[in-house]
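Exercise 7.
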Amino acid sequence: MRAYVFEPRQERCDGLQAELISAGVDPTFVSDTFFASGLESLLQPGFETRAILISDHEHVRQCIRNIRSLGCSNPVIILRDFRNARDTANLLDAGADDVIVSPIRGEEVRSRTNSVIRRLYGHAADSVVVGELVAYFDGRDPIVSGARIKLSKREHSIFQHLALNSNKVISKDAIYDAVYGMSIDQPFDKVIDVYICKLRKKIASAAASGCQYIETVHGRGYKLSEPDQMLTPAE
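Solution. The predicted structure, written as tokens, is:
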């Protein structure tokens, strides 16, 4: 999971970064200019799952308004030092999805963000069933034909993006941006194809039917779906 984080108090950044990373959240710290001129990047396909964590400050409501007025549907979570019911209500009414009060715990941030993301994609539960496959949105590896299969961090990120969009065609660029985005260590262009191949092998090896479940839709991208819903045999 990737997240943009605005914390103007430098002395808090190191501790917050360590806490988020420990829970599997990859943070990118931004300045206040992000809310004035950097939000357009969130409109790219694949970026809608990136959380925006904003430390409460005097302009926090304007930041939220800027995000929502641009049409960004990203999870917006406000980090507060103290509990205040009226302020929390105002922040939620302004367009925030959630408010977390210190001490900030990475696992709580991840779980609350996941709950927003899965509802954004129309999933009320913490998992989706696709044939013999159970895909979880809370960080757990998937179960195929009753057995859990172990995925690497990158495999899991790609698989979860496909699962959130199950039965929909997702372009390779959208998957790439969702997993790597603006990372300075972006890999070569074929990396998504390589991970898709690995995922197919793991799923097919565990599935009683031997089905790979991930279909290539030529010229468009990939789709996670049941065998009888595939347009063409997976490659």
